[in-house]
Amino acid sequence: MNVVCDRAALVEALSLAGSVVPSRTTAPVLGCLALKADDGILTVASTNAEVGISIGVPQVEVKEAGTALIPADKLNQITRACEDSTIALHREKSVLHVRSEDAHFKIFGFDPAEFPGVREFPEEGEFFSCDGGTLRRLIGRTLFATAVENSRFAISGVLVEKRGKQIRFVATDGRRLAVAQGPVRGGREEQTFILPSKPLQILNKLVDDPDLPVQIAQEESYAIFKVGEGADAAVLSTNLVEGQFPPFEDVIPKDQDKRVKFESTELSSAVRRAALLTNEESKGVRMDFSSEGLMLSSRAPEMGEAEIQVELKSYEGDPIEIGFNPAYLTEALRVIDEKEILIELKAPNKPGVMKVGNEFTYVVMPVNLS
Hints:
By secondary structure, this protein is α+β, with helices and mostly antiparallel strands. The chain is built from six helices and 27 strands. The protein has helices at residues 7-18, 72-81, 132-140, 197-206, 264-274, 326-334; strands spanning 2-6, 32-38, 41-47, 51-57, 60-64, 66-71, 86-92, 95-99, 104-108, 128-131, 157-163, 166-172, 176-183, 185-186, 190-196, 213-218, 222-227, 234-239, 258-263, 285-290, 293-300, 304-310, 314-316, 320-324, 340-345, 352-356, 360-364.
């Protein structure tokens, strides 16, 4: 193998593929990146036995087709440290020579035949598709609400429900619930599966262009995503999360009788400022709603107090005083790019619901402020 690569494009591909590589493994080849040069494309692939990825680097001059299997950490470090616009990669036996204008590195690798391989996208199979912007929005509006550490393994991932031409992503950690919806094309009429969090984080980075086409295929035990078109398209495959996702529809309140409309940026700013005077003992921010407006207040012993007034676009219902964890509100507000949001409430001890049309619903449990 002998290629000359655009360094910036190579660094980006190596970094994305490297994010799949496990930090510790008993199988040295799983700590490697597989390189394949052919037909003017350098393909970078990696796997941790559960998630696999392959990325095409198009800005490449292939002088000699071939393959290589090289430790990910050293290859990433060397390509990042080089400052030239291009880098040459040349494999001789198990050694990869990395050359820039003023440097020459030799990295000892492995036999490429030892690489276990990654799944290819089933072009002839059944799949559905959407644009990159839709997928990024679905991931962004749900991934933050997954359970980081929980014995109920199913809620550490994101539930995907396809019904006809609509798809829903659902995430919960037991204290809040995020549901995002968007349009899709093709595929089976109904599909339901749970995706792990880590591959969704990687997928979010892969979809850097909102107009990129994304194709999604799902089998019984895994899902596979193809981002882009042509020989340099990226393919990400992942095992699915086993288990039963909780019946989330039951958690979404249907009888809220207080409705508030906000400018989303104003509310986000006010909650962030009120959170400045909270601590571990007093995590909650008090929210006093009335037709006059919203008063946010917070208090932390030995630190101080805060009061922030927020104008409402509209208010329906009786006055109510309720407390929420400000982190749960700001995380949701951060992923809302619409100008206006709706919050629905029932009582101080009942969950609040944040909505953006039919595209985003966020249910959050209140906190006791007494």
